[in-house]
Amino acid sequence: MPGDEVVYRNKQLKINGESIISSYDSVFKDPKQYGSHVYNETIDGIDHRLLLTPSRRGREGTYTFQKAHIS
């Protein structure tokens, strides 16, 4: 949402300072993604599945979504 701050660091997500908790689901079975794991998380009541590969780096950083300008 406009004005929200999202931080992704060490494979952990925070939105406006609140940690998003993910729970382990299973090992992802694909020879091209060896070592990947499936996790579940819920954000604002909506369930999401995500794939984490420990050996791969994500785009870590802090992102702030700009407020919309209506003219």
Write the layout of secondary structure elements.
Layout: E1 5-9, E2 12-15, E3 18-19, E4 22-27, E5 37-43, E6 46-52, E7 61-64
Antiparallel strand pairs: 1-2, 1-7, 2-3, 4-5, 5-6
C-alpha-based Rg, rounded: 15 Å
Which sequence of SSEs, written as H and E, runs from N to C?
EEEEEEE
Number of helices: 0
Q: What is the strand tally?
A: 7
- Poorly predicted sequence stretches spanning 5 or more consecutive residues: none
Strand order, main sheet: write it out. 3-2-1-7
Query: Mean pLDDT, nearest integer?
Result: 88
Q: Give the CA-based shape.
A: elongated
Largest sheet: 4 strands, antiparallel
Q: How many discrete domains?
A: 1
Q: What is the first-to-last residue Cα distance?
A: 19 Å
Helix content: under 10%
Structural class: mainly beta
Beta content? over 45%
Task: Describe this structure as you would to a colleague.
The chain is elongated, with a radius of gyration of 15 Å. The protein has one domain. The strands form two sheets. The protein has a four-stranded antiparallel β-sheet with strand order 3-2-1-7, with no helix packed on it. A three-stranded antiparallel β-sheet has the order 4-5-6, with no helix packed on it. The protein has strands at residues 5-9, 12-15, 18-19, 22-27, 37-43, 46-52, 61-64. Helix content is 0%, strand content 49%.
